[in-house]
Amino acid sequence: MLKLSMSTATSPRIHPTAVVDARAELGAGVEVGPYCVVEAGARIGEGCTLGPSVHVFGCVELGAGSSVRTGSVLGGEPQDLKYKDEPSRVVIGARCRIHEHVTVHRGTGANTVTTLGDEVMLMAGSHVGHNCRVEKNVILVNGAMLGGHVHVAERAFISGGAAVHQFCRVGRLTLVAAMSAVTKDAPPFSIVTGGYPLRWRAPNTVGLRRAGFDSERRAAVRHALWSLFRSGESARQVADELFQSPVPEVVELARFVLESKRGVCAGKRGRAHDDDGETF
């Protein structure tokens, strides 16, 4: 029997064409659609919905209230020549929305993990590579791709067709423009665009407003970003100075630059206006 700890009224509903291993764990109210495969060891949280033809490998933990749409594959083998069938996992948070034909791969390296935070949305055809860490409220738009070991911070937005190179970081509340190639770290609170080189374009002022940043904090972040990417000075030298700021978000930005291993993206050339109408 499936491992269940619930009354009959809240037992999972499993379509007769689905294949669910008896050693999988399904929470109360789970729905498993036609032609799904749920392997031994998989843990599906309460209230999850699996649409048709979803494949959940046994290394996956899916948080409560999440939905997975047609044709998605969770926990497949990493596309990594170093992978030697060692045990690793995928841990997905609560209330995530995983749309059609998404792939999320387990980690490379024994006991490593690919993680998605709560309320992440992965739109159709997007991909999360091995050993990625995707924090809560991140959105990947159709066809967006994360290479292995990528870290995407809270409320970042990866637009359609954008690709993030392995080991790169995307900062908190950063918007990556469509079709961009992120080959350097994309700093927090920013809009970045293009590729070869990826360039910092502007502060993500709309995102900051929606996140509840007041005008003073928005101004502090804007001017810190201007100093880093438009002043012509060394970004690391500027970050050293910004690290002394009394504004926590400016310190966060400075720390991001100082801790970068791949280097941060290039600055934008010429004059530009931000979303508050100020000229940089």
**What is the CATH top level name of the domain at 8-149?**
Mainly Beta
Please count the beta strands (DSSP E, at least 2 residues each).
28
Main pleated-sheet profile: 11 strands, mixed
Describe the strand arrangement of the main beta sheet, using strand numbers: 1-4-7-10-13-16-19-22-25-27-28
Give the helix proportion (percent range).
10-25%
What structural class do helix, strand and pairing data support? alpha/beta
Tell me the span between the first and last alpha carbons.
64 Å
Shape: elongated
What percent of residues are in strands? Answer: 25-35%
CATH homologous superfamily (4th level) name of the domain at 8-149: Hexapeptide repeat proteins
Mean pLDDT: 93
**What is the fold-level CATH name, i.e. the topology of the domain at 8-149?**
UDP N-Acetylglucosamine Acyltransferase, domain 1
Label the CATH architecture of the domain at 8-149.
3 Solenoid
Radius of gyration: 21 Å
In DSSP terms (H or I, runs of 4 or more residues), the helix count works out at 4
Q: What are the segments in which pLDDT stays under 50 over at least 5 consecutive residues?
A: 4-8, 270-280
